[in-house]
User: Which sequence fits this backbone?
């Protein structure tokens, strides 16, 4: 059974996000750990921004993210999925989303990562509002 | 029956509020309107949301609800549309 951990965090995420795979790693089953970081970029559409404001409908967002992670775990057989997502303002260059997947082999980890993110963007009740570069 | 619906993101910006109220028909012997009826009422009362309602879903008590599910008194109802985290 896939280990799943989901967290919503106020503001930007720190680069020292703990690994999802500690307990599994002790059993020596991990052969691959894939980590994705979503970073706020300056160009949004055709404009320039200084930040994104993330609105999160809790606790539904956490439940949906956990449900997607469990679905992807069952489907792909990966060992662990860690998800962290920001709430509130995240400036350009800062991290707003982290997904780390531990698996026996890289192929299922990479595939599960892409599938998880696609579903998150369609299903999780999270919205982002651009903060134009010129605003105070 | 009047149903309060929480709204977020672009929908909240369009209506200028974090919730909307809609009057919904309740069938005889039902305790409240169906999810489908609530969505129809939103479309009827807020034509400015037509684009957003395409593909939108209702959540009842923090879980997506099927069209035939009934909304009861005290339920927390939210319109989940135009999401896009990450």
Assistant:
């Amino acid at each position: 059974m896939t280990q799943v951990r989901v967290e919503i965090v106020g503001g930007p995420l720190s680069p020292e996000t703990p690994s999802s795979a500690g307990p599994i790693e002790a059993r020596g089953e991990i052969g691959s750990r894939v980590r994705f970081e979503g970073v706020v970029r300056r160009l949004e559409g055709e404009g320039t921004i200084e930040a994104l404001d993330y609105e999160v409908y809790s606790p539904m967002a956490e439940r949906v993210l956990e449900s997607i992670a469990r679905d992807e775990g069952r489907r792909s057989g990966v060992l662990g999925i860690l998800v962290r997502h920001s709430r509130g303002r995240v400036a350009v260059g800062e991290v707003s989303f982290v997904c780390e997947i531990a698996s026996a082999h890289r192929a299922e980890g990479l595939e599960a990562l892409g599938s998880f993110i696609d579903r998150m963007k369609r299903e999780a009740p999270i919205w982002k509002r651009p903060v134009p570069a010129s605003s105070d | 029956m009047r149903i309060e619906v929480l709204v977020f993101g672009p929908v909240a910006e369009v209506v200028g509020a974090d919730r909307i109220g809609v009057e919904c028909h309740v069938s005889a012997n039902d305790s409240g309107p169906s999810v489908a009826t609530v969505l129809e009422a939103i479309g009827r009362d807020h034509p400015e949301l037509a684009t957003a309602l395409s593909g939108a879903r209702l959540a009842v008590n923090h879980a997506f609800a099927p069209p035939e599910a009934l909304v009861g008194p005290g339920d927390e109802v939210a319109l989940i549309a135009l999401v896009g985290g990450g």
Remarks:
- The interface with chain B takes residues 38, 54-57, 59-61, 63, 85, 96-97, 117, 120-129 of chain A (CB under 8 Å).
- Strands of chain A lie at 3-10, 32-39, 43-44, 47-56, 80-91, 95-103, 126-132.
